[in-house]
Amino acid sequence: MQSEISQIIKSSSAIAFSGSRSPHPSSVNVVSEAVASVPVSVPVSVGCQRGIDAAVREACPRARVFRAADFGSGKGAYAARSMACVRSVAVSGAIPEGIAGGLWIAFPSSACPAGLMPSASSPRCFSGKGSGTWASLAFAIGLGVRSLVWLPESVSVPVGWGFENLGGGWFLFSPVMQLSLF
Question: Would you call 148 helix, strand, or coil by DSSP?
Answer without folding.
Answer: strand
